[in-house]
Amino acid sequence: MLRTMIRSYRDYVFIENKEEQTIADFRREFVEHAINHLKLCGSCEKSKGFTNPKILILTPFMGDARALVDLIVQQVGLQQENRERLESIDDETDMFRISITISQRNNKIKFFANFNHAHIIISSPLALRTIVGAEG
User: Fold this and answer.
1) How far is the C-alpha of 18 from the C-alpha of 91, rounded, in Å?
2) Which of 15, 58, 107, 118 is least surrounded by CB atoms within 10 angstroms?
């Protein structure tokens, strides 16, 4: 059921569930889908827009973002660049953005890459709001 939901390319809101295993399963399926999406887009022509990111993930706290990053690293299995900067951010922070570039050619996953050329952006809603300049 979970896999079918995620692969249907619809927007979903995952409300906190007290069962840790359910959360872990959701994150694992979600990250697997995201990485598969990147692989499909890898053969597509480079974006003609202003930015290149293919995946935007919104999560309220840095601790949640770090859990997703750990799964992404586990899935791609590449060397990590700028990981120490990621680890220096407090788990309870609600103002963060992480841009991620994955390079199979260089065998590297880079955190805090050039924002406009990243493949994945993980951000808190508050940080995204400041990025796009929304008021109110």
Assistant:
1) 19
2) 15
Q: Give the SS3 label for residue 103.
A: strand
Residue 31's Cβ-count burial label (10 Å; 0-12, 13-18, 19+) is buried
Residue whose token pair is 């935007």: 56
Q: Of 53, 108, 123, which is closest to residue 78 (Cα–Cα)?
A: 108
Q: What is the pLDDT of residues 78-94, one digit of tens each?
A: 899 999 998 999 988 89
Sign of CA dihedral 83, 46, 123, 73: negative
Tens of pLDDT, residues 90-135: 988 899 999 999 887 888 999 998 888 889 999 999 998 887 776 6
Cα separation, 32 vs 114, whole angstroms: 24
Query: Which pTM was predicted?
Result: 0.78
Amino acid letter for position 53: P
| Alpha-carbon span 24 to 36, nearest angstrom | 18
Which sign, positive or negative, has the C-alpha torsion 40, 45, 46, 50? negative
